[in-house]
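hi!! sorry for the late reply, been swamped w classes. u asked for the two structures so here they r. pasted raw, havent cleaned anything up. first the sequence of the first protein and right below it the tokens
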Amino acid sequence: RAGTAWARNRLGWTAIKQGQFAGAEEMLGSALSYFRETDHRRGLIWTLNDLGFLLRRQGDYPEAQRQHRESLRISEMIDFRDGIAWSLYELADAQRDAGLYAAAQESLERSLAIYRALGSLDAALCLYRLGYLLILQGQTAQAGPYLEESLAAYRHVGSQDGLAITTCYQGELALAQGDGSTAVRHLQRSLALFKSLSEDGNPWGLLRVLDSLSRTYLVLGRLEAACAPLLELGDRARQLSSLPSLMNSLIGLAFVLARQGQNGQALDLLAVPLHHPATRYESRQRAQGLLQALEAKLPAGATHKQLPAGQIQESWEFFDLQLQLLARKSQETIE
């Protein structure tokens, strides 16, 4: 039965990567039940972290933190250092998405210290995440060395995936420092690296770079260039059932509409990410910034689909309609 539980765990992970969340929940839930019944602690650790990862893809950041904290508690109970480090790394992502930057930084620093002591390449994961956290907090000078060390580690082992995601964050750093042309260069390279990976590579990293690239083009005022990555972001987000990434595409499209003088439609679109629980903290800040720039308030009751984060499929009809309309408008603008 233990072998079956591990198989269900892996099937659950595969389902997550395919955006089949209902199947993932079923498989991971079945594995978790067995591991709880038999007090299989390592099985619990990995399955709880996988469940937390799934919850983050659905935008349920409080529950994701709870799963990662339980995994961390069990890991510490049996002094499983690799489990402690991985639980802290995953917990940091959920904390960052919820806007708990100081807590996320502390979790990552603890994880990094353990991975360094273990001599694990996973230290590079913590390094680029720490770099990005510092960027989000405006500490760009401190962020650079973390990203450079992560890049060096991935170059040493020839990890295309690692190079792709760290190069993406180099683009974020350049943008934060006001160097738009360098940001575009890094992000285009990151996008090319991600697209050179196999289909079972890092689909969430690709979502990240599409969001970063479209946002950079918008900052530079290149609306036409921003449309293609924005629409691809929305398309891939739907394929992966990733509500947080879909929120990012809606925010980006609202920026496009606002730049085109279509403030009413921009506000209508902003109502979704501003009210939806799946919107990441950093994304919500961008949406609120646009709302302030428009010197407007959302219409009373303009909440659209205020669904619990897990009810993904019920949101798609509204999002699909908005993205289809905006795709047509964007094409008309380009032509």
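now the second protein. again sequence first, tokens right under
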Amino acid sequence: ETKPKIEAKEGELPRGVFVLPLGGTAPYDTVGTYFRDTEITRLVEYIEENYGLGQIIVLRIKSGGGYMHIWEKIRQAIYEARPRHRFIAWIEFAGSAAAASAYLCDEIYYLSKGECGAATMYAGNLENPSPDWQQDGWARELAKVLAHSSHTPWIGGCMIRSKYNFSYDIDPETGEITYYPDESGDIVLSQTGRNMILTAGDALDCGLSDGTANTGEELAALLDLDEWIEIDSFGRDIAAEWSETLKEFEEEGPKLMREFQGDVDATTPRKILSARIKAGQELLKWYDEIGEETWQLVANRVRIEAIKREIKDLEHQKSNLDD
């Protein structure tokens, strides 16, 4: 992966970019956990406070998708800031809600191995697709997003439902591309029975990619920059910070939950209760650290109010023990 070449010194701002990695170990870094609106908003606010308007923000995407209610917040964050900045999606892998996030940007670039698509909506797990009316509503919503970014809206439905088709022609003399919501074009990208995933080559050939770049230097040329310069590492820093925090919780959270439920290394009733109370208090600290929304997605539906009530009950039991 391309690393920052330089960081700008005060008063010497070059023409460059700000990079925000979203996801990283697709398909596991989902939209809603490692891929959030929070970091997008933080980066925009930081840029505007320190560098002003008109900056280039590169969203480096590698995610298999995730939660629609978080995607809606991502849409709001990007659409709110797009009039003031140039948003670039740089795709290694973007599935489902991550693909929809890429199409929110002004421009889309792929790595040569990049893929984007397969946006079927599921209710809870991959074995339970959402009902047809909900899928069709999602297809209409994605079509609006594509149109807003000057892309053909017809690819939206093909990524969501296998009943939709998509093909295109290229005029050999003018190079003009004509799209069709069926299989009548010379080149068929989506046939009945499968959800469309665009490779970097497919997307470039049909006009749904602005270019292919494997390095920052290659992307800089496509962005009409003289060289690849990351003006500031803040985007990378906050992404790494959040990733480390969440990974730590994913290791510590289940352990603390087991201890809170009584799986502790203690020999007396008082010590057992103390250990359980301590574990519960640590869980409350984690709740404050990762926030209510993320807690709901990663804490196996354990309600924080139930933990608070249980802590009070354990404290009451402990107070009734004889020393």
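hope this helps!! also noticed smth abt the second:
The chain is about 45% helix and 15% strand.
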